[in-house]
Amino acid sequence: MRTRPLKVALLGCGVVGSEVARIMTTHAADLAARIGAPVELAGVAVRRPSKVREGIDPALVTTDATALVKRGDIDVVVEVIGGIEPARTLITTAFEHGASVVSANKALLAQDGAALHALAQEQGRDLYYEAAVAGAIPLIRPLRESLAGDKVNRVLGIVNGTTNFILDKMDSTGAGYQEALDEATALGYAEADPTADVEGFDAAAKAAILAGIAFHTRVRLDDVYREGMIEVTAADFASAKAMGCTIKLLAICERAADGGSVTARVHPAMIPLSHPLASVRGAYNAVFVESDAAGQLMFYGPGAGGAPTASAVLGDLVAVCRNKLSGATGPGDSAYTQLPVSPMGEVVTRYHISLDVADKPGVLAQVATVFAEHGVSIDTVRQQGRQDGGGDASLVVVTHRASDASLSGTVEALRNLDTVRGVASIMRVEGE
Ligand code: HSE
User: Rounded to an integer, what distance in angstroms lies between the CA atom of residue 386 and that of residue 380?
Assistant: First the structure.
């Protein structure tokens, strides 16, 4: 084994960074044996240097992250600060000064992955980011390496633990969104400002990364259609239960049937209770991958948290260090298919539409005509008269597969019918 250690600079020492440092120390001998050389923490860049960090030599702590990545003797920079800047500049500076990079930064990778990969390649460095998507779950490496000989057609996943916790709570207790969010906040699953999670931004960044890797193409954050889950109601869960489904916030990346384009989207959807993703409870993540040769694969585990995310970071660290010792680099960017990303209107799926309608003769026929006029075929209809004496009824229509554009046209026309008092909810039905 080489005795000269590989030097690691850690950018950020919060929930994930402190676990990375701890595991590097406690597993030092095993890491050295697996890599073929010891790895040494050479510097830790933080914002608050006065904070006591157990197990970290205070002499290694600095507030000058730029000077740390410019040192020239750093082999690997581990970036766990998140956000776009200063992370982007620190990573590019690290590449220019001889270091490879392990990052957990989904927002940055989704936005600037192409440019960062290009620079890494130009400089002969590695850029690894297993921790950026679904925390501890091995997903990037299986897609990039294990499935490199196969053809992935679909990636369907629960990639946000906070929203899965909230939806699971609503499902199991009948709670409304706000009540479930309050519990998620009290238990530390939801952040004080939960926007990135509940509005689907976090999942959309992960979907962009997954789609790009799965289909060997370029999918930018802006290409991902996104709807959050704040409008999901207890009534939606009751409707879902009535048809043997539950509701999940899904990231769905698909290759078109003709292979000529891809789509990526994040939105709440009903899925059958028999689908493996339906049983993903609490804050867990799971990703279902469908490919030509392997068939259906499911990856499951903790999608967030200090130690689970650090596990993914350490796996990358070992891989990058091994590459460094052998004088090679690992798999880089692979966007050779250059498939266009189709707009949401071209996505084809099933829909569950809940309408408030007048309870009088001819209404069902009128509603059915609107669906027919837009080429949307109805699978089932369920009507229930209201007990409040208002003469209205609730009408639930489940469609066969139709394009999102056709469905949007249908809903717009339904809203213009005098007999339709309102469209209570529209939800896509997936996983069948
Ligand atoms: N906030 C994310 C989640 C974890 O709730 O899953 C980090 O991506």
Answer: 20
